[in-house]
UniProtKB/TrEMBL annotation:
UniProt xrefs under SMART domains: B561, DoH
Ranges of residues in domain Cytochrome b561: 182-381
Signal peptide region: 1-23
Annotated stretches, region: Disordered: 189-210, 405-448
Name under which the protein is recorded: Cytochrome b561 domain-containing protein
Domain DOMON: 39-156
Entry-linked PANTHER family: CYTOCHROME B561 DOMAIN-CONTAINING PROTEIN, DEHYDROGENASE, PUTATIVE (AFU_ORTHOLOGUE AFUA_8G05805)-RELATED
Cytoplasm in keyword set: no
Compartments it resides in: Membrane
GO CC aspect terms: membrane
Length: 448
């Protein structure tokens, strides 16, 4: 009996050890990892599906003293990217700061993503190099890792922030992007070697403009940008200024209509090509402030065009014309702002002066429009005179001119075709009704 009990106990221990080994093997097999490197910066990511977490390690050459700041972030662009920015303070300690941004603004610590777990025990800085280790929890809204999981990177070796995690940083002077294959099984044997990964950090800094890629996506973005800038910075302002200055100078409305129709065609083409590109690349439509504002502007422009057509159907004053002017000016300002917002999203990193040029041009257009308001009193006087002449012609066409107050009576009687000047008027027989009335009026007893 004792031997049977011992045998059962041994079997149970064997099963428990087997289950533990199987669980450990399963845990290891459920991890996926990849890495990417440049000449002085590497990133390794280990993805745990069970924990829904990225375990990340960023390494940089040099250390033990300030070496500038380095950063990596999720996604393919800065806008709403979940970033980790690391640097070394003057005491040689590593600092990690989780940040995010809207567009290409300076990243801030006001994050909307889940808070990162900072692994200080695995982070260090010495003369051989610097390591920052942390993990990013994934939310349900984050895209699932794939063979081309996108990340971005940036650095500024000349900027050494203070020791605080909320310290301000200066603009990057190098940046880029890379993809990691997070479907590759994790290999613990090569976990210490970041160079074994399949990815590479691709530069996109202003110092490497020649390495920018003119692929299909960038070609479409450039075409979209050209169509929209021509429409909103040239054609639409031209149509507005024609409407402002041309009212007292020439027959302005046909020209205004032709210019605005051309502008709408340019906007339509620019809208269609960027939507088609997003669909073909499998991206999400209208997922940024620029895209949402662009959709709203496009819809308003359609309604604005219909309002302009209806408002000019009649020559009489129509309140819809004032609404048309106000909406037109408002949507133009919104479109100009959205154009500068779009520049900040471009992965090529348009220089800041590009946005400044657009705003300076927009300011000159605004001054030209305000100067045209000086003609408004003359426009009103001319419009009232045209309305008065139009009403007079209408009365004359109806034969009501002799009833206008203060005007000499104008006879509208026409002479007989057989009447000759100087001859006595023709004697025409009175009508039967008039003869009957005359006889009754002169009959005895019918007088008053």
């Amino acid at each position: 009996m004792l031997r049977l009990h011992t045998l059962i106990t041994a079997c149970c221990l064997f099963l428990l050890s087997a289950l533990a080994a199987f669980a450990q093997s399963t845990s290891s097999d459920s991890l996926f990892a990849d890495s990417a490197c440049s000449s002085n910066l590497c990133l390794r990511v280990v993805y745990s599906p069970s924990e829904q977490r990225y375990n990340m390690t960023m390494t940089a050459s040099g250390g033990g003293a300030p070496i500038g700041w380095h950063a990596v972030g999720t996604g393919s662009q800065m806008d709403k990217s979940n970033m980790m920015i690391g640097w070394v303070d003057t005491a040689g300690n590593v600092v990690m700061s989780q940040r995010t941004t809207s567009g290409h603004d300076t990243p801030s610590t006001s994050i909307t993503a889940l808070a990162a777990n900072l692994e200080h025990r695995f982070s260090f800085s010495n003369s051989s190099g610097t390591v920052w280790a942390w993990s990013f929890p994934l939310s349900a809204s984050d895209p699932a890792p794939s063979t081309t999981t996108p990340f971005i990177w940036a650095s500024n070796k000349n900027d050494n922030p203070a020791a605080s995690t909320t310290a301000s940083i200066h603009r990057h002077n190098a940046y880029g992007f890379f993809n990691l294959d997070l479907t590759k099984p994790y290999d613990s044997a090569s976990s210490s070697s970041s160079a074994s990964g399949s990815g590479s950090l691709k530069p996109g800094s202003n110092q490497n403009r020649g390495r920018r890629i003119l692929n299909k996506r960038n070609n479409v973005i450039i075409a979209h940008m050209v169509f929209m800038i021509v429409a909103w910075f040239l054609l639409v302002p031209a149509g507005i200024l024609i409407g402002r200055y041309g009212r007292t100078m020439f027959k302005w409305f046909p020209v205004h209509r032709a210019v605005m129709a051309t502008a709408f065609l340019f906007v339509l083409i620019g809208f269609i090509i960027i939507v088609a590109q997003t669909s073909s690349s499998g991206g999400e439509h209208f997922d940024s402030t620029h895209a949402k504002a662009g959709l709203a502007i496009f819809i308003i422009m359609i309604l604005q065009s219909l309002l302009g057509v209806l408002g000019h159907k009649t020559k009489r004053f129509n309140p819809s014309r004032i609404v048309h002017v106000v909406i037109g000016l408002g949507v133009t300002v919104l479109a100009i702002w959205n154009a500068t917002e779009g520049l900040s999203l471009w992965s090529w990193g348009a220089p800041r002066w590009a946005g400044w040029i657009l705003w300076v041009w927009a300011s000159l257009l605004a001054l030209a429009y305000l100067a045209g308001l000086a003609f408004l009193p003359r426009d009103l006087r001319q419009w009232r005179a045209e309305q008065s002449n139009s009403q007079e012609k209408q009365r004359n066409s109806l034969g009501l001119g002799e009833f206008l107050p203060g005007r000499a009576s104008v006879s509208t009687k026409q002479g007989s075709p057989t009447h000759q000047p100087g001859s006595p008027p023709l004697q025409t027989a009175p009508s039967r009704a008039y003869q009957t009335y005359s006889q009754q009026a002169h009959a005895p007893g019918n007088r008053l």
